[in-house]
């Protein structure tokens, strides 16, 4: 065991909780600027847009204004974006993540991020969480040209010159983090964080606290 890969969202920090708070603050900011809509209706519409277009779509609030037939939407979009970004100043990693990363680095493991999404946004999270410097590199689906799956992990291993049996993947998603990594021989650790915590796991190890990862890594 030489290499450990980490997902970001709901693995290194509680992104589900952050997203819910950020969207709430954004909608309230839009209403505060005069948007003619009730909170519950606007929230329901925004969630439907995100579900349809994906979390990396950049015009959620524009679409919401269009649905609500808001005149002069720029003011509302600007208020939403400002409130959303202001919420980012409060994001924190899961409590034991920084110390766990430090211990793993001290023990000689090479740490990497393997994540879906927009590269700038994912780097932004790592920097705001103040954990970016723990990682040797970050592999993002946007830059690799594919979502996380067998080919994604094979491409990462090829770039590193690593063998599957030298690696472990830590994440919260069965479909993106666990099954494809395990299918090519990478050891898998399922972190029970966020909204997917109740989903059954095919991972070799299941943890609820990131501190549990240190003895698992040593056992491998």
Description of the structure:
- By secondary structure, the chain is of the alpha/beta class.
- It folds into 2 domains: 3-14 and 92-219, Rossmann fold, CATH 3.40.50.1000; 16-88, DNA polymerase, domain 1.
- Helix content is 49%, strand content 12%.
- It has 10 helices and 6 strands.
- Strands 3-2-1-4-5-6 form a 6-stranded parallel beta sheet, sandwiched between helices.
- The chain is elongated and about 60 Å long.
- The model has no long low-confidence stretch (mean pLDDT 93).
Helix/strand layout:
Blueprint: E1 3-6, H1 15-32, H2 39-53, H3 60-67, H4 74-88, H5 97-106, E2 110-115, H6 119-128, E3 137-140, H7 141-144, H8 150-160, E4 167-171, H9 174-183, E5 187-191, E6 205-207, H10 213-219
Parallel strand pairs: 1-2, 1-4, 2-3, 4-5, 5-6
Features:
alpha/beta, DNA polymerase, domain 1, Rossmann fold, 6 strands, elongated, 220 residues, single chain, 2 domains
Q: What CATH architecture of the largest domain do you see? A: 3-Layer(aba) Sandwich
* Number of discrete domains: 2
CATH superfamily of the largest domain: HAD superfamily/HAD-like
- Give the number of DSSP strands: 6
Task: Describe, in short, the structure shown.
With 220 residues, the chain is an alpha/beta fold. It has helices spanning 15-32, 39-53, 60-67, 74-88, 97-106, 119-128, 141-144, 150-160, 174-183, 213-219, and strands at residues 3-6, 110-115, 137-140, 167-171, 187-191, 205-207. The chain has 10 helices and 6 strands; from the N terminus they run E-H-H-H-H-H-E-H-E-H-H-E-H-E-E-H.
